[in-house]
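Cast an eye over this sequence plus tokens and explain the fold to me:
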Amino acid sequence: MSRLLSRLGEDIVLYGALAANLGIGVAKFVAAGLTGSSSMLTEGVHSCVDSLNQVLLLYGQKRSRRAPDHIHPFGYGRELYFWAFVVAILIFAIGAGVSIWEGWRHIAAPEPLESPTINYVVIGIAVLLEGGSWTLAMREFARAKGDLGWWRAVRQSKDPATFVVLFEDSAALAGLAVAALGVWSSHAFADARLDGVASIVIGLILVAVAALLAREAKGLLIGERADPATIERIRTLVAAHRQVTAVNHVRTIHTAPDSVFVAISADFDDALTMGEGETLIERMEAELREAVPMLASIYIRPEKAADAPSISPLATS
């Protein structure tokens, strides 16, 4: 039961965003159908894409929690990173593509808007719902980032579900502001093409978000190290044993947001026997797992300092 509650807590941001986007999407399409607004239509598509993205991330979360097996001995944690990359592609291909195409079509063949009131009402409701989802995502991300700056926290985050929703909701709020401006300007200046321009601007916002998410997801999918503080803690714990004369390198890679594989090369005292070395390694592994619970797999290799490969400081992580 406690595990189930923990998982629901981890996914609350995704569930909140999904509920908000489903309701908002329906309202936007109704408003677009009644008024003929291009920017509201693209905002409806945007909400549908966001809803699909949340479903994919929830699916990725579920798949990533599968236990290791003989085919995937380190588990399926990085499957979440794959679906995060798919989300970035969908935002670019569908969200941004449809928005820019619809905007261009509306500029080429402008259709006067029927009534801005419906659009304003829907935009106001959407801002409230998206704002609630954004606040939830912001609160969760702020809790997870600790003392790190916002941009640095995004770059170092290994859980795409948190920053993907945050970026999507931020883009959605920006898109709503642009849509409102497009509807208002179309009526104020009696030029329906301005609503199409707003649709294109929304598309460009989505292009920027998709590019940023794709960059972050690609790094996670290829494999990123643990944070430097964790690496230094591992190195310190190993070096603290008097039988270890040198720690050659500590190499880590995230196999899931909360799971890390570490490979350690250390020079042991030549006076150690084989049995003593095995006992020492077992003791170090137990200490490391207790001190750094996210270490799912630990590999410690006795190796002469002179024989250890020479690698750059960045590669050691």
In short: The chain is about 70% helix and 10% strand. The first helix runs from residue 2 to 35. The two ends are 37 Å apart (CA to CA).
